[in-house]
Amino acid sequence: MLHIRQATADDCQLIHDLAWRIFPHTYRDILTPEQNNYMMEWMYSLSSLHQQMGEGHVYFIAYEEDTPVGYVSVQQEAGDLYHLQKIYVLPDKQGLHYGEQLFQHAVAYIRRVHGVPCRMELNVNRNNRAVTFYERMGMHKDRSGDFPIGHGFYMNDYIMAMTIE
Fold it and tell me: What average pLDDT does the segment 121-140 reach?
C-alpha cells in the first residue's frame, strides 16, 4: 500500500537521492548526458531544493511500506493557477499506479488549499512517454515551446493543462 506524506526541508537529501535514481534514467534517451547533469544540479542540488521549498514548492513523498518510491511537487503560480512542477516514480516501481496516486494526491492538495475551480499546468518534454500518462489523468496539450534554461540548453516541452473542479 502506498503512503504519501508532505515533505519538509529535512527531506531535501531524500528527494535529491530519489531524483538521482529516477531523473537520469527517465531522460537517458531524450537528453544528452551534459544536459542531464546540468538539469540535475539546477533542479536537485540541496541548495536548489531548499530554495524551491522557500519559494512555495510543496513536495510530497510516496512510500511503499517504509521505502520511498517517488515524489511530486506543486506550486501556486498565480491566483487560480498551480503548476505541477515534478512527479517521478522509481523506474522499477513504474506501472504500479503510483504515479496516478501521486497525481491524484497533488490535485486533492490543490483542492484543499485553494478550492475550485482552478487550473493546473505542467511542462513535459515533447519526447517523454509521460505525455500519454498526463492525458489519461485528464490533462490536454495546451501549447508548446522551447524554453532556455541556461548554458545553451533548452527544455522542449508541451505545456499541458487541466481545470480542477
Answer: 96
If you search the block for the grid coordinates 489523468, which residue do you land on? 137
User: Could you give phi then psi for residue 66, rounded to 5 degrees?
Assistant: -105, 10
Distances (CA, A) of 17 to 20, 70, 78, 117: 5, 11, 30, 35
Cα–chain-centroid distance for residue 65?
22
Q: Where are the alpha helices (DSSP H) in the chain?
A: 12-26, 33-44, 46-54, 98-114, 130-136
pLDDT surpasses 90 at 7: yes
pLDDT, averaged across the chain: 96
Cα–Cα dist 156/147, whole Å: 6
**Confidence label for 1 from pLDDT (cuts 50, 70 and 90):** confident
Q: How far apart are the first and last CA of the chain?
A: 27
Sign for the CA dihedral angle at 40, 44, 48, 53 comes to positive
The mean per-residue pLDDT over the stretch 45-62 comes to: 98
Grid coordinates standing for 100? Answer: 496516478
Surface-to-core class of residue 33, CB atoms within 10 Å of its CB (0-12 exposed, 13-18 middle, 19+ buried): exposed
Give the rounded distance of the alpha carbon of 98 from its chain centre: 13
